[in-house]
Amino acid sequence: MASTSITADVFTQRPAWRSLRWTVPLTVLWVGLIYWLPVIPTSGVPTTAHQLMAHGLIALGLWLGLERADLTPDQRRAIWLTIMITDTLWFALAWSCAINGMFRTDGSTSSVPMLPLAIFLPIIIGAPLLLLSKRVGQVLAATPASWLIALQFYRVFGSWALAAWLRGALPGVFALPAGTGDVLTGLFALPAALALASGTDQGRRAAIAWNIFGLADFVVAIALGMVTSPGRFQLIVPSVQSIGAGAYPDVLTPAFVVPASVLLHALSLRQLLGRRAR
Length: 278
Prior knowledge:
The chain is mainly alpha-helical. The chain has one domain (2-277). 74% of the residues lie in helices and 0% in strands. Helix 5 (45-68) runs antiparallel to helix 6. It is globular, with a radius of gyration of 19 Å.
């Protein structure tokens, strides 16, 4: 109830709501397009394209934040190269494993569950480094807090799951909650960023609520993906193949997009809570 009132108070502001006037119809058009032309999502081009776009925005935003931080030029270059090279190699590894079928289960129970490893290992390693690093804290302090939120507008591309369900290519027990959660997170990224940029306490609380909702969406999606996918955790056997079966390009979503987005949420919450403390 509290989070609902916060969201309602903030999103009644005209500047925040105005962004939905063009993002909602564009999202609906995109769902219709990939429903009628399934060759688009199955090619893997949209997933790769929007992640490369996000990668470029991260590179640009990171550099601009480093320029505003109290660091020497050598420190800026070292931090930028370390983060961007790591992110690039991570995406390349996930994409290569996906396209070569390394995440496929085919009904077997491997001793090394590759997909859960791809989801949780980057979070286990990356979250402590990003949340405890003083250098990262300096960059976050110098970067507009709305940027990390607006960046996740790419989550609207999670609508591919809804289109796949409409075509009967993905089970509704997974696609409906996971796809809807992703679309809502992406659609409200821009209103939440605009509300936060207004500088009000309500805007900051709405941004925190948005981050919590985005993380909760992943908890639901990962849990449903595990119980509907072939393997030791399967509790529901759907009539069609689930995302956890590991087929390219759908598997790129849990193998890379999910852990990368979780880390972005963690950084955003660190930034918001750190500024409130100050």
